[in-house]
Design goal:
With 88 residues, the protein is mainly alpha-helical. The protein contains six helices and no strands. The chain is elongated, with a radius of gyration of 23 Å.
Length: 88
């Protein structure tokens, strides 16, 4: 089962190296929840947070899951022959 561990680890490391946590010595929770402190977090961390959200949502959203190989059992040559019949 796919997981979001790689993105989560990268996001945590990004937050720990941010100015808010590393230099100003605020907690990660304070930096993420406080809008004033969130300006000290780099844009890359915000993008990783969004990616983590999308990854977690993809794990739960059944509409996004792959249900097998698309067009399995149908060769490309068969589809082009069928489409030529309809164009006449």
């Amino acid at each position: 089962m796919p997981s979001c561990d790689g993105i989560r680890d990268e996001y945590i490391q990004c937050l720990l190296r941010s100015e808010c946590v590393f230099i100003k010595r605020h907690s990660v929770e304070e930096c993420v929840k406080n809008k004033d402190l969130a300006t000290l977090i780099p844009e890359r961390c915000h993008m990783l947070r969004q990616s983590l959200f999308e990854c977690k949502r993809g794990l739960l959203d059944m509409r996004k899951r792959m249900r097998g190989v698309p067009n399995s059992g149908v060769r490309h040559s068969e589809t082009t022959e069928d489409s030529s019949k309809w164009s006449e």
